[in-house]
Structure formats: structure tokens, C-alpha cells
Amino acid sequence: MARPELTGVLLVGGASTRFGSPKALARLNGELLAERAWRLLGEACTERFAFGKAADALDLPFDVRDDGTETRAALAGIVAGLRAASSDLVVVVPVDMPFLTPGLLHDLAAACEDAAAPEAGPLPAAYRKTALPVLERRLAEGTFALHEALDELRAARLSLDEARLANVNIPDDLRRLG
Fold first, then answer.
1. Which CATH superfamily includes the segment(s) 3-177?
2. What is the DSSP string of 143-178?
């Protein structure tokens, strides 16, 4: 069930250097990774945005907003998403994690002080607008590492199902996960 106080942000602006083409357009079991993630956010949140680079001109069935930077870093999309959100609480999903669930996103949101993320890595995550000053400063400084940003925030780290956190880095991952 979608939570009214929760905004979802889908990150589609990654460089996909190891993958070799935009991950958002990759298919898993016949569905675009971006479509899977967009559907997930629709199930978990009442408001959702996708952020990336307008210049990429990805052919997706939903609008992708430009994150307003030259930088290809998740931090740029997170800052843009927090700025755009009408709610105080935002869950952030990368396009390359096809097995996330609404329940997992709600768990992150429930644990969020300034931020919440899995113990295993910085994404997916939940952020409150209180995190914006730290995240904006790090973006302006060019210090993009999310795990370092989490260290500066009141961030909960959750033990989550590792199978749900599987991500796609190379084309062989799609075959393995499919």
C-alpha cells in the first residue's frame, strides 16, 4: 500500500560503464529495469519522480527530470529528489536493483532519522529533508561517496535480505538474476 507521507525517487542517470549501455533500458524477464523500479515506487509511495540526465533522452514510459548537474553520481539525483519532494521523507531506488519490495522501502522509511540504508551498501535508502544541507554541501564539494555522507548524518543501517538487494552491474547479471 502506498504511503501518503512518502515520496519515491528513481535514479536513472548512472554512467553504466561496466554494463555498456543504459541499465534503465535493460530487460529482465521481458520488463525494462526502469519500468520495474517505477512500478515499485508507485506501489510504495503516493508521489514519485525519476531523475537522470535530460541529454540521455531515454525512451521510457514516464518522464525523467534532469538532476541539474553535470555530475553522474547518485548524490545528484538524491539532492534533486529531496528538493522536488512535497513530503519530508523520500525513498531512493537505483534502477539496477530489480528485487526490491514496497515492504523493504517502508522499512527504510520507518527507520529514517536523517537517513536509513542497508548495512550492505548505501542504496536503496531513505532520506529526510534534514539531510539536504549535508548532501548539498557534499555535491558542491565534489565528494560524492554516499557511504561517507551517511557517516555525517543520523543514519540508521538496517540488516536487510541480501537477495532483495541484488543489483545489475554487467549483462551477465541479468542472465543470472533472470
1. Spore Coat Polysaccharide Biosynthesis Protein SpsA; Chain A (3.90.550.10)
2. ---HHHHHHHS-EEEE---GGGG----SHHHHHHH-
- Rounded CA gap, 83 and 112, in Å? 17
> What tens-digit pLDDT sequence spans the chain (178 residues)?
666 689 999 999 766 667 767 888 889 888 999 999 999 999 999 999 999 999 999 999 999 999 999 999 999 999 999 999 999 999 999 999 999 999 999 999 999 999 999 999 999 999 999 999 999 999 999 999 999 999 999 999 999 999 999 888 777 777 787 7
Contact 103, 161 (CB under 8 A): no
Among 134, 140, 114, smallest CA distance to 125 is for 114
Q: Which three cell numbers stand for residue 48?
A: 514519485
Please state whether beta strands 89-94 and 125-128 pair in parallel, antiparallel, or not at all (unpaired): antiparallel
Look at phi and psi of residue 142 and say left if phi exceeds 0, alpha if psi is from -120 to 50, else beta. Answer: left
* Cα dist from 96 to 48, 85, 157, whole Å: 17, 22, 20
With contact defined as beta carbons under 8 Å apart, do 7 and 41 qualify? no
